[in-house]
Protein backbone atom coordinates (compact mmCIF):
# COMPACT_ATOMS: atom_id res chain seq x y z
CA UNK A 1 0.00 0.00 0.00
CA UNK A 2 1.43 3.37 -0.98
CA UNK A 3 1.39 6.60 1.00
CA UNK A 4 -1.87 8.28 0.00
CA UNK A 5 -3.70 4.96 -0.09
CA UNK A 6 -2.41 3.97 3.36
CA UNK A 7 -3.20 7.32 4.96
CA UNK A 8 -6.70 7.61 3.57
CA UNK A 9 -7.52 3.94 4.20
CA UNK A 10 -6.45 4.36 7.82
CA UNK A 11 -8.74 7.37 8.06
CA UNK A 12 -11.61 5.29 6.65
CA UNK A 13 -11.06 2.80 9.49
CA UNK A 14 -11.03 5.59 12.06
CA UNK A 15 -14.34 6.86 10.69
CA UNK A 16 -15.73 3.31 10.76
CA UNK A 17 -14.91 3.06 14.47
CA UNK A 18 -16.70 6.33 15.21
CA UNK A 19 -19.71 5.13 13.21
CA UNK A 20 -19.81 1.88 15.20
CA UNK A 21 -19.79 3.76 18.53
CA UNK A 22 -22.83 5.78 17.47
CA UNK A 23 -24.65 2.74 16.14
CA UNK A 24 -24.01 0.77 19.34
CA UNK A 25 -25.28 3.57 21.58
CA UNK A 26 -28.41 4.07 19.47
CA UNK A 27 -29.15 0.34 19.47
CA UNK A 28 -29.18 0.48 23.29
CA UNK A 29 -31.39 3.62 23.28
CA UNK A 30 -28.60 5.60 24.95
CA UNK A 31 -29.75 8.73 23.13
CA UNK A 32 -27.37 11.29 24.64
CA UNK A 33 -24.38 9.00 24.09
CA UNK A 34 -25.58 8.21 20.57
CA UNK A 35 -25.98 11.89 19.76
CA UNK A 36 -22.45 12.73 20.95
CA UNK A 37 -21.01 9.74 19.10
CA UNK A 38 -22.91 10.59 15.90
CA UNK A 39 -21.63 14.17 15.98
CA UNK A 40 -18.07 12.88 16.47
CA UNK A 41 -18.54 10.56 13.51
CA UNK A 42 -19.99 13.33 11.36
CA UNK A 43 -17.06 15.59 12.26
CA UNK A 44 -14.55 12.87 11.35
CA UNK A 45 -16.33 12.07 8.10
CA UNK A 46 -16.66 15.73 7.10
CA UNK A 47 -12.96 16.21 7.80
CA UNK A 48 -12.24 13.25 5.52
CA UNK A 49 -14.57 14.54 2.81
CA UNK A 50 -13.06 18.03 3.04
CA UNK A 51 -9.52 16.67 2.70
CA UNK A 52 -10.61 14.90 -0.46
CA UNK A 53 -12.88 17.54 -1.99
CA UNK A 54 -10.77 20.62 -1.31
CA UNK A 55 -7.28 19.14 -1.52
CA UNK A 56 -6.80 15.64 -2.95
CA UNK A 57 -9.38 15.63 -5.74
CA UNK A 58 -8.43 19.03 -7.20
CA UNK A 59 -4.77 17.99 -7.33
CA UNK A 60 -5.62 14.68 -8.96
CA UNK A 61 -7.85 16.45 -11.51
CA UNK A 62 -5.12 18.99 -12.30
CA UNK A 63 -2.52 16.24 -12.74
CA UNK A 64 -4.69 14.00 -14.93
CA UNK A 65 -7.16 16.35 -16.60
CA UNK A 66 -9.95 13.99 -15.45
CA UNK A 67 -12.77 16.05 -13.98
CA UNK A 68 -15.69 13.89 -15.10
CA UNK A 69 -14.27 10.61 -13.83
CA UNK A 70 -13.79 9.04 -10.42
CA UNK A 71 -13.63 12.28 -8.43
CA UNK A 72 -17.01 13.37 -9.78
CA UNK A 73 -18.51 10.02 -8.76
CA UNK A 74 -16.95 10.27 -5.29
CA UNK A 75 -18.33 13.79 -4.77
CA UNK A 76 -21.79 12.53 -5.72
CA UNK A 77 -21.47 9.69 -3.23
CA UNK A 78 -20.35 12.13 -0.53
CA UNK A 79 -23.60 14.05 -1.11
CA UNK A 80 -25.62 10.83 -0.75
CA UNK A 81 -23.85 10.04 2.52
CA UNK A 82 -24.45 13.55 3.84
CA UNK A 83 -28.17 13.09 3.17
CA UNK A 84 -28.16 9.79 5.06
CA UNK A 85 -26.41 11.50 7.97
CA UNK A 86 -29.15 14.11 8.17
CA UNK A 87 -31.78 11.38 8.27
CA UNK A 88 -29.81 9.67 11.05
CA UNK A 89 -29.69 12.92 13.03
CA UNK A 90 -33.43 13.29 12.60
CA UNK A 91 -34.05 9.73 13.81
CA UNK A 92 -31.94 10.42 16.90
CA UNK A 93 -33.89 13.58 17.67
CA UNK A 94 -37.08 11.54 17.45
CA UNK A 95 -35.46 8.72 19.47
CA UNK A 96 -36.57 6.28 16.79
CA UNK A 97 -34.24 3.32 17.15
CA UNK A 98 -35.68 1.43 14.16
CA UNK A 99 -35.47 4.40 11.81
CA UNK A 100 -31.94 5.15 12.99
CA UNK A 101 -30.93 1.51 12.44
CA UNK A 102 -32.37 1.54 8.92
CA UNK A 103 -30.59 4.76 7.98
CA UNK A 104 -27.36 3.53 9.59
CA UNK A 105 -27.56 0.34 7.53
CA UNK A 106 -28.08 2.36 4.36
CA UNK A 107 -25.10 4.57 5.21
CA UNK A 108 -22.95 1.56 6.07
CA UNK A 109 -23.61 0.01 2.66
CA UNK A 110 -22.88 3.32 0.92
CA UNK A 111 -19.65 3.74 2.87
CA UNK A 112 -18.47 0.18 2.21
CA UNK A 113 -19.03 0.50 -1.53
CA UNK A 114 -17.54 4.00 -1.61
CA UNK A 115 -14.46 3.04 0.41
CA UNK A 116 -13.77 0.01 -1.80
CA UNK A 117 -13.73 2.24 -4.90
CA UNK A 118 -11.46 4.79 -3.28
CA UNK A 119 -9.09 2.27 -1.70
CA UNK A 120 -8.79 0.01 -4.75
CA UNK A 121 -9.07 2.49 -7.62
CA UNK A 122 -8.88 6.20 -6.83
CA UNK A 123 -6.22 6.31 -4.10
CA UNK A 124 -3.80 4.07 -6.04
CA UNK A 125 -4.36 6.36 -9.05
CA UNK A 126 -3.55 9.35 -6.84
CA UNK A 127 -0.40 7.62 -5.60
CA UNK A 128 0.72 7.04 -9.18
CA UNK A 129 -0.10 10.55 -10.44
CA UNK A 130 0.82 12.81 -7.51
CA UNK A 131 3.97 13.42 -5.45
CA UNK A 132 2.75 10.99 -2.79
CA UNK A 133 5.05 12.04 0.06
CA UNK A 134 4.23 15.71 -0.29
CA UNK A 135 0.51 15.12 -0.79
CA UNK A 136 0.16 12.57 2.03
CA UNK A 137 1.94 14.91 4.45
CA UNK A 138 -0.46 17.73 3.60
CA UNK A 139 -3.45 15.37 3.77
CA UNK A 140 -2.32 14.10 7.17
CA UNK A 141 -2.14 17.68 8.46
CA UNK A 142 -5.66 18.40 7.16
CA UNK A 143 -7.08 15.24 8.73
CA UNK A 144 -5.41 15.95 12.09
CA UNK A 145 -6.64 19.56 12.06
CA UNK A 146 -10.17 18.41 11.29
CA UNK A 147 -10.09 15.87 14.12
CA UNK A 148 -9.48 18.56 16.73
UniProtKB/TrEMBL annotation:
Name of protein: Hemerythrin domain-containing protein
Ranges of residues in domain Hemerythrin-like: 4-126
Residues spanning the membrane: none
Family matches, as Pfam families: Hemerythrin (PF01814)
Alphabetical list of InterPro entries matching this protein: Hemerythrin-like
Amino acid sequence: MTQITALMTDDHRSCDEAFARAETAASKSKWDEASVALEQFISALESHFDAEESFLFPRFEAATGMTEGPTKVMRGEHAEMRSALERMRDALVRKDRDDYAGEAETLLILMQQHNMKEENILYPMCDSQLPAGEVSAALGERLRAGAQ
